[in-house]
Amino acid sequence: MKAKIIMLSALGVASFGLTQAANASWDSGACPQPHTGPAPCVERNINGTWEHFNGDGSHADEWHGPIEFVGTSTLGCSIATAECTLSLTGNVKKFQDGSGNWHIGIQVVDGDVTGSGLCPGINLSGFPWYAGPTTMHTGFSSSTGIPYPGPYVGNMGNINLTALGGLITVNNSHVHDVTFDNNGSGASYFDFDSPLYTGGNSDNDSGCDVDGRLFVNTYDDINIY
């Protein structure tokens, strides 16, 4: 049976990528409703003020942030138990593929685990991590993303994790079915519940898994339409 490593998480979608990404502009006001596209519209609320990068195709392929998500996640491996604080940082963008189909891009560029006990010995690397469609198990990059329109569910890689001085080592892994939810009038969140898979398309179970729900923290809310 796997021991559980419980992480009190800050899944930061903040600073996701290039330095200029955090400086990408937002337009004033919320996304117009009903949203008719054809492109995604992403909106944020900061202290009651709504801004968006809109759905008419402008702002395409520009990383926007910083965005932080905070919550509790559980990492299960074979030989360790720890309660930790996890922080990840990144950005979000919308872009079109070669066929003109829209996608939501997510790029994670840094992560840190803190806390007592075994927490200082847990290290994350392999950045940048990228989202891709649920059919993707290798080749995650800045040109991959979650298909639009939703539901906003995708895989994410390539994730490296070490703990206990290397007794736990997972390299070039990915997770399945990472889900973003606008959550109605509540704060939006990411859900994940997946083994860490290695071997690309072979989908080998590494012996570690992770699950949790992380709510937006940098802003009061962020939504995708």
- What is the typical, i.e. mean, pLDDT? 85
The shape, in one word, is globular
Please give the alpha-carbon distance between the first and last residues. 41 Å
Q: What's the total count of β strands?
A: 15
Strand order of the largest sheet: 1-5-14-13-12-11-9-7-6
How is the topology of this model organized?
Blueprint: E1 3-15, E2 27-28, E3 42-46, E4 49-53, E5 68-77, E6 82-96, E7 102-114, E8 123-125, E9 129-132, E10 146-147, E11 152-163, E12 168-181, E13 189-198, E14 204-216, E15 221-224
Parallel strand pairs: 1-6
Antiparallel strand pairs: 1-5, 2-4, 3-4, 3-15, 5-14, 6-7, 7-9, 7-10, 8-11, 9-11, 11-12, 12-13, 13-14
Structure description:
The protein is an all-beta fold and 225 residues long. It has one domain (3-224). It contains no helices and 15 strands. It has strands at 3-15, 27-28, 42-46, 49-53, 68-77, 82-96, 102-114, 123-125, 129-132, 146-147, 152-163, 168-181, 189-198, 204-216, 221-224. The chain has a 9-stranded mixed barrel with strand order 1-5-14-13-12-11-9-7-6. Strands 2-4-3-15 form a 4-stranded antiparallel beta sheet, with no helix packed on it. The radius of gyration is 17 Å and the shape is globular.
